[in-house]
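Why do we care about 3D structure at all? Because function follows from shape, and shape follows, mostly, from sequence. That is the central idea of this module. The next example makes it concrete: a single protein chain, its amino acid sequence, and then its structure expressed as tokens.
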Amino acid sequence: LMHSLTYNVLAALAPLGLLPFIRKRFSGCWLLVDRDFKADDNAEHLCRWILRHHPEQKIFFALNKNSPDWERLKSEKFPLLDLQSLCYSFAWLHCVWIISSNRTGYIIRPFWRRWFAALVKNRFCFLQHGVTKDLHLVLNFTRADILITAAHREYNAFVDDPRYVYTEREVRLTGFPRYDELLRKVAAIATPRKILIMPTWRKNLMSELLPRTGQYPYSSRFRQSEFFRQWQAVLQAPDLQECAKRHGYQLVFFPHPYLRQQLGDFTLSGVLQPPDAGGSIQDILADTALLITDYSSIAMDFALLRRPILYFQFDRDTFFSTDHSYTKGYFDYDTDGFGDVALTHEQLFNIASEYLKNDCKMKEEYRRRVDKFFAFSDQNNCKRVYEAICAES
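And the structure:
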């Protein structure tokens, strides 16, 4: 199959999926996807678990063949489909479940589906990319048949908040599949030595999303933003770099995937950067002693490890009003957060230096919050998600 075919040609050829031998290959399958250009999220980890524990289940994992993750998964004998191929179109037509950590339309609702609406019977299991802690009403527009959650208050927000369309029928409290692997890897690293700097993105700084992809093009105005200036100052702060070096730690910069096209704007002297802004985030988190972030849901994953978090929120007055795509929900950083909040560079350095001097131990106050927040701290999340899907099949 020619993976470079345009979407219009794919739409024209999609009826071939009704041929008996194609129907036989894909009929009744589960189709798992993270992003088009990146795996290593909940779908990948669930797929790997199913392959190991339920090889009888017919599954496929979709990914752009040009992704740096393709060869890695191919070497593991993942049942791969190129997300821009006819095979993906055929699998989408005949699958019974689309299981994804991403709800983008090109994955769960291809534009050519309208011609096959009467034939398609698939359902959508939304694994989520991260814990939903803020009010994210856009989730109402791509309603899931199953929505996976990891925390008690997260589950309650979806079920009880009348602004969401979800009920107990759709929402499941199982934990995220990727947490199984994260906890396993953490157990193998006794003394992490990295300080991970990982801010989330800002919708108002991005150009228009590229059509039928999950990627943003380079934005020429990004370098003029306060966001860029603030984080560039953190990355190149001599006091922070010297303190880290003195205590045997290394700074690592790993921005949100939506910011990867802007990496060339940053000066990263003395700061490590994962290859291609890639590598497994599980490995990076497992070797991280202190996380410096802002509002990213990655803090939820890291909190599960009971390691310290530092929130740098220089723009907290505007983030939930103009800078992003959702508003503040049940989670308050001052009363619910899993670490200290810094509003200035001086506060950030003072807090970070104290953690580094004390071997990066999470404070007991924040450990108690973590213990109360998460529903599970075991390695059975994939099992629970699999059983939830089977129960609805």
